[in-house]
């Protein structure tokens, strides 16, 4: 990748990772670039609409939401799926997510949560810890072994909590169970005090997607079976939505 492109993406990532506007001097420190270089990159990114300059510094620009909408469109994630997640959130009373595997990566494409900090700790974007998440296990269980190993070799199997599975053999055994039962459950592997359930979305076109729920562990122990049952209905409806779409079209 050309160095200028790499640096511009570093600046964009630094702004995206901040809780508020970022000054040019702060961006220079964060990216390791000279101040004059940062100003040049900021000018280009602002001109393209990826960033906006405010009195306090730079923030993400108007082009970012449109890029996300285009990403969702290309991933066939439309308003019907969003509505389905919101309905599931109200029914289950817990945070719900829609995830997918594509081109060697796992990503959370959408979520429905009542709080700024979802129970599962997930946010829309790439998930590099698929070995430790319920939705990741569902998606990994559907992959050929070679593709699964490529993913794991690229992301590693870091121990997020003491309960995270970090052994490839243990994970293989877990994924075999997921394939047999059609559901993945993880308990405190990704976050202390949290359990997650995920099921695959049926797809005639071979797309690998999953829906999941994250809820407090005590809540899961009390009504985990009921949550799983509801989630299976959500996945079936998401599959019917995908089937109804004409071939070659993508959702809104």
UniProtKB/TrEMBL annotation:
<protein>
    <recommendedName>
        <fullName>IclR family transcriptional regulator</fullName>
    </recommendedName>
</protein>
<dbReference type="InterPro" id="IPR036390">
    <property type="entry name" value="WH_DNA-bd_sf"/>
</dbReference>
<dbReference type="Pfam" id="PF09339">
    <property type="entry name" value="HTH_IclR"/>
</dbReference>
<dbReference type="InterPro" id="IPR050707">
    <property type="entry name" value="HTH_MetabolicPath_Reg"/>
</dbReference>
<dbReference type="InterPro" id="IPR029016">
    <property type="entry name" value="GAF-like_dom_sf"/>
</dbReference>
<dbReference type="GO" id="GO:0003700">
    <property type="term" value="F:DNA-binding transcription factor activity"/>
</dbReference>
<dbReference type="GO" id="GO:0003677">
    <property type="term" value="F:DNA binding"/>
</dbReference>
<dbReference type="InterPro" id="IPR005471">
    <property type="entry name" value="Tscrpt_reg_IclR_N"/>
</dbReference>
<keyword id="KW-0804">Transcription</keyword>
<dbReference type="GO" id="GO:0045892">
    <property type="term" value="P:negative regulation of DNA-templated transcription"/>
</dbReference>
<dbReference type="InterPro" id="IPR036388">
    <property type="entry name" value="WH-like_DNA-bd_sf"/>
</dbReference>
<keyword id="KW-0805">Transcription regulation</keyword>
<keyword id="KW-0238">DNA-binding</keyword>
<dbReference type="InterPro" id="IPR014757">
    <property type="entry name" value="Tscrpt_reg_IclR_C"/>
</dbReference>
<feature type="domain" description="HTH iclR-type">
    <location>
        <begin position="2"/>
        <end position="62"/>
    </location>
</feature>
<feature type="domain" description="IclR-ED">
    <location>
        <begin position="63"/>
        <end position="252"/>
    </location>
</feature>
<dbReference type="Pfam" id="PF01614">
    <property type="entry name" value="IclR_C"/>
</dbReference>
């Amino acid at each position: 990748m050309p160095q200028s492109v790499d640096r511009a993406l570093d600046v964009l990532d630094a702004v995206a990772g901040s809780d508020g506007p970022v000054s040019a001097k702060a961006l220079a420190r964060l990216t390791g670039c000279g101040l004059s270089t940062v100003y040049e990159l900021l000018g280009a990114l602002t001109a393209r609409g990826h960033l906006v300059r405010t009195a306090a510094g730079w923030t993400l620009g108007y082009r970012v939401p449109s890029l996300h909408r285009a990403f969702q469109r290309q991933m066939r994630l439309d308003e019907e799926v969003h509505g389905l997640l919101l309905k599931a959130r109200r029914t289950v009373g817990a945070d719900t997510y829609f995830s997918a595997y594509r081109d060697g990566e796992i990503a959370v494409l959408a979520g429905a949560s009542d709080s700024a900090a979802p129970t599962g700790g997930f946010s829309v974007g790439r998930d590099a810890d698929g070995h430790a998440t319920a939705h990741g296990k569902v998606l990994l269980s559907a992959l050929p072994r070679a593709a699964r190993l490529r993913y794991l070799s690229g992301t590693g199997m870091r121990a997020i909590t003491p309960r995270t599975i970090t052994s490839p053999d243990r994970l293989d055994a877990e994924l075999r169970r997921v394939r047999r039962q059609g559901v993945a459950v993880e308990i405190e592997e990704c976050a202390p005090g949290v359990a997650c359930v995920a099921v695959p979305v049926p797809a005639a076109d071979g797309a690998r997607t999953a829906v999941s729920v994250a809820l407090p562990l005590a809540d899961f122990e009390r009504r985990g079976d009921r949550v799983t049952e509801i989630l299976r209905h959500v996945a079936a409806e998401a599959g019917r939505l995908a089937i109804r779409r004409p071939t070659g079209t993508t959702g809104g």
